[in-house]
Amino acid sequence: MGRTFGARPMATPETHRPILFEIFFDLVFVFGLIRVTTFMSQRPAPVTLMQGFLVLLLLWISWLVYSWLGNHVRIDVGLIRAGVTVAMAAVFLVALVIPDAWRTGPGTTGSRLILVLAYIALRVVDLVLFRWVAAGNRQVRRTIRLYALSTTLSWIPLILGAVFGGTAQILLWALALTIDMGGGVVSSMLSGWPVRSPGHFAERHSLVVIIALGESLISVAAGVGIQRIRGPILLAALLTLAVTVCLYWLYSASAATSRHALTTESGLRRAHVGANAYSVAHFPVLAGTIYVALGVEQVLAGLAHEEPHGISDWMPAVALFGGTALFLAGRAAFLSLSVRCVRPGQFVAPVVALLLLPVGRYLPGLAALGLLTAFLAVLLSYEARTRQSARNDQPQSSPE
Hints:
Blueprint: H1 2-5, H2 20-42, H3 46-72, H4 78-96, H5 109-133, H6 138-164, H7 166-190, H8 198-224, H9 231-264, H10 267-280, H11 282-304, H12 314-338, H13 344-361, H14 365-393
Helix pairs in contact: 2-3, 2-4, 2-8, 2-11, 3-5, 3-7, 4-5, 5-6, 6-7, 7-10, 8-9, 8-10, 8-11, 9-11, 9-12, 9-14, 10-12, 11-12, 12-13, 12-14, 13-14
């Protein structure tokens, strides 16, 4: 038992797939997403949406670094498992204090510092584990040194933001997370983060998108609460399911082609696709999905409490249509950075979603949700026909 606990890390093979302990790790990430959505729904305002965006980015980085670690070694063995368990506890603390992290006034600094110190702790654990894993691999060790420099630098504005609070906190945390995320991209460009198992890497990112999509369905229950289920609520719930299915199929079609591209690439090119198309471009996909879930929750809450005008301000419409635009923009970036072939309609789709936002602002909540469903259904049908036409136009090889 002792030899197993202190054994060298077990490198993952090319054919490695996600393991149960990684899915278990994602449960804490799910808790974090729920806490962010709950926080934004309690005080829907432009500043709250920005605060939620920053916390989502912080959670995303927390998940991301351990997905890279799990691509290099099995994280359910020995000291790696112990370190990842500690990181899970840190993510849990981060998620727990999210609603208090943006409060101002006497006695609120403690919650902000708990969040920051827990985040720093999980990053330290990741850097230590990755350096241990990279023993003997000069390329990875050099990448870790570059990334550790930018990550450590980002902790300064993160701590200062927790101390000052208010507007300074938003600006300083935005700077910190930009440095942290940007450091990963720069270190990848200069040295490269090797993607040992492309199948594992692609599947881990697809699973986390599915987790985020599930938040839309959870938001139905959160919006309705214990109110009596009526006809409009049932219709809104079914429309939410339709929106979720459309978003899934739009992502799934892109993920299949991008996974093939990641698998066929090798060396530094594969590393760049992993860092840019997956680590970076997947964040707007996830964040947009969470904003859609927020809009769904607000629409359902209005129907459950029989509010006469449904959507009565900009915020629910921004969450629904702005979140969809962010999702579609992230998907277009994902395709552009992986397969380097994006159809014009995939670039136009986010713009159309934004153009529908002012219309959704003046519609009742149920009608706005119906408009979003119709838009996504038309987009899904259009892209399916486009793919079919492209396959039909391909020259058929003649039998010999």
